[in-house]
């Protein structure tokens, strides 16, 4: 099966189609502070390193790892969402150059496009509304819609089921993190494209299974032309 045969394209949001601009780290400060961890402290530095290493993972999973206790994890997640939503509301949310055009081109060529995120549905919807992207894709998914977030294959496989795609080999996955690459490979996607506009570098993307590494999502339509 060649790249011509791809009929479903599953795209990450922050760092891939949407500029992150440090918003995740700023929102994490609010989450950490809600649990008594102050920015600048050694504990905060250790936690922030974990957040950076696990970019792309479901945020509630990250907070469960960091805080251990479920109540603390949920409270941190709520503080993170409130912080992120506030930043989005301040206009700190932009599409990456060429992203909307790439999505339009892919759909114009008859491919289904699904946007996925490690954020909650509330945060995902805030981003989509801020960009005017409510109808830009065929489907949008967050971890709660699928069962588990990245690096598990659930969101990609849910996209396959909901779009009635015939085979996992007809899927292309694109993202900016190693977790996106793991998700794509575990789902059996034939194209797993890493982009260099977000969290992780080419070495990390390739180590986690990237079949292609692109400067940005704007290059993806040309790759899928084969």
Descriptive notes:
- Helix content is 48%, strand content 12%.
- The chain has 226 residues and is of the alpha/beta class.
- Strands 3-2-1-4-5-6 form a 6-stranded parallel sheet.
- Helix 1 crosses helix 4 (70-89).
- The model has no long low-confidence stretch (mean pLDDT 92).
Features:
single chain; alpha/beta; six-stranded parallel beta sheet; 6 strands; 48% helix; 12% strand
Structure summary:
This protein is α/β, with parallel strands linked by helices and 226 residues long.
Radius of gyration: 17 Å
For the terminal residues, how far apart are their CA atoms? 11 Å
- Which strand order spans the largest sheet, edge to edge or round the barrel? 3-2-1-4-5-6
**Biggest β-sheet strands, sense, barrel:** 6 strands, parallel
Number of helical segments?
A: 11
CA-based shape = globular
The helix fraction, in percent, is 40-55%
Low-pLDDT ranges: none
Mean pLDDT: 92
Based on DSSP secondary structure assignment, what is the total number of beta strands?
Answer: 6
Which secondary-structure class do the elements indicate?
A: alpha/beta
